[in-house]
Amino acid sequence: MSRAARRVLFVSSEVAPFSKTGGLADISAALPRALAAEGCELRVLTPRYGFINREQHGIRNCDGATGLRADFRGRSLRFGFSRAPRTGDVETYFVECDPLYDRPGLYVDPFTNGDYIDNDYRFILLSRAALQLCRVTDWEPDVIHCNDWQSALAAFLVSRKRGAGAFARTRTLLTIHNIAYHGLFGPESVNRIGDGAERFYFPGGPLEFYGHVNFLKAGLEFADMLNTVSPTYAREIQSSYEYGYGLEAVLHARGDSVAGILNGLDTDAWNPATDAHLAATYDANALENKERNKLALCARMGLSYDASVPLFGSVSRIAGQKGFEILIPVLSDIFHLPARMVLLGSGDPHLEHVFHEFARLYPDRFAVRIGYDEGLAHLIEAGADIFLMPSKYEPCGLNQMMSMRYGTLPVVRATGGLADTVVDAADAAGGTGFSFREYRPDALLQTVRRAVKTFRDRERWMALQRNAMAQDFSWAQSARRYRELYDQCLRNPPRVVA
What pLDDT does 256 receive? Predict the structure, then answer.
């Protein structure tokens, strides 16, 4: 088979710009484009949620691919496929099923703030539809690339179809973006999957997890190969319950079938030399222009500007995982270094309230914006001096890469992708930020103090900025590794689970 002939069906529950709750959507848009540039023939499949406007995106029904039927042991649903105009060498297909997808949220009901009670139906259909799309379009992929629990069952279904003579040449790859999310459902869900799933649901079996059906575990057991979004995270999730969330033994048993590939960064969207969201564009040879963004950021957030006082930034989901539980106990100490800080994000209502209180107590040193604002996110990356990212765990992380590209040095906990991308300033070979290992407030504060001390040495600071801005986080590197992983999948015999 020629190198240009690899056919890949990329299945994801969210794909930018059509649907998005987090980084998975951006990855599901950028990685297929980069893979196409590596000589792969890419088709992307995702649900068409009700908020995705067909006319706006030019989405049209696929000929001969409507009016299909899916049976779920007592519930029968009609579904079909539609397609957006081809973008470069990537074709994007949608699963059309209004009873399951015509809703205001992707996974969570915004009216109850709870998961949709029929999420099992919704994502069983996505996995089934992946195989059905191949049939109705007469297109057999070399690799079906699944992403997280929402499409993990496709690996199980392909394995079962092989036994009936279909998909004999097709291999499956499951990418774990965050192992904390399993896709857990009651035992009755196993009857809805089909293809003899009941045979594999028993205590300790491939689909069972403490009395529940576990979609992610099914993918981990049946996919031909697995990968996570950074090499360190691939090791961490096999090492302990703290990182593996109860699936560490399953992963450890897969051994060499678990790879770690860093996510890439959209270097066109995140480029300080061309970024339209900035007050002033700049590059490593014109770092003086970066200061104009600090001035603009302070003005926008209502903080006084002082070039000699470091400005910390954070753009994050506000949740314990992101390290706020070790940041809050030392936040007052940080303000008195002295330092200032801006925070953009949303999440845990209790933590949001805590940060509002800090903003009230320190109005000249701390500003918070709850929600998400794309333009402000770019301005924070450019206008801050130091980016705070003390995560408890971080499968890959993109903000540290964005920060380094913008010459904003990150302070990170050395976990997951943060450990793989940030080189501590103490490294004689050329640091790009500051890191610590112990998940404790005092370890974070000590590292922040070290960063502030270095900030005052302007010559050393600018050298670190240039080191950081010279790093290559483009998707091209990651796509080459995925292409190699696809080739490895196809060289290996298919995985058989008895």
Answer: 85
CA dist 101 and 93 (Å) reads: 15
Residue the block writes with tokens 């003899």: 196
Global pTM reads 0.91
Residues 6+ apart with CB under 8 A from 229: 27, 175, 176, 177, 260, 261, 262, 263, 395, 396, 417
Q: Are strands 434-436 and 409-413 parallel, antiparallel or unpaired?
A: parallel
> pLDDT at position 4, please?
47
Pairwise CA distance, residues 267 & 374, whole Å: 16
On the question of a common fold for 3-264+476-491 and 287-471, the answer reads yes
Q: Name the β-bridge partners of 143.
A: 8, 171
For 37, the 3-state DSSP assignment is helix
- Match 């649903």 to its residue by tokens: 77
Tell me the β-bridge partners of 46: 94
Query: Which DSSP state fits 84?
Result: P
- The dihedral region occupied by 56, where left means phi > 0, alpha psi between -120 and 50, and beta the remainder, is alpha
Residues (pLDDT < 70) of the chain are: 1-5, 428
Of the candidates 264, 160, 204, 314, the residue with the CA atom closest to the CA atom of residue 473: 264
81: which strand partners? 95
Each residue of 229-241: pLDDT tens digit?
999 999 999 999 9
CATH topology of domain 3-264+476-491: Rossmann fold (3.40.50)
Helix spans in 204-258 (H): 215-222, 231-236, 241-244, 248-254
20 contacts 14 by C-beta, under 8 angstroms: yes
262-297 b/e (C-beta count within 10 Å ≥ 16 → b): bbbbbbeebebeebebbbbbbebeebebbbbbbebb
Smallest Cα–Cα separation from 30: which of 401, 381, 298, 371?
A: 401
DSSP structure class, residue 237: T
pLDDT (0 to 100) of residue 31: 96
C-alpha 60/C-alpha 42 separation (Å) is 19
Q: Domain ranges in the chain?
A: 3-264+476-491, 287-471
What are residue 63's phi and psi, to 5 degrees?
-60, 130
Q: What is the pLDDT of residue 1?
A: 39
Cα–Cα distance between 51 and 94 in angstroms, integer?
13
Residue 389: closest CA among 298, 440, 327, 438: 327
pLDDT in tens, 394-448: 999 999 999 999 999 999 999 999 999 999 999 867 899 999 999 999 999 999 9
Quick check: helix, strand or coil at residue 42?
strand
Q: CA triplet 116, 119, 235: central angle to 5 degrees?
A: 115
Total number of residues shown for the chain: 498
State how far the Cα of 86 lies from the Cα of 266, in Å rounded to an integer: 20
Q: How far is CA 370 from the centre of its chain?
A: 21
The CATH class of 287-471 is: alpha beta
* Residue 108 to residue 497: CA distance in whole angstroms: 33
- 317, containing H or E segment: strand 311-318
**Token code pair at residue 357:** 């209180």
| C-alpha triplet 74, 78, 81: angle, nearest 5° | 140
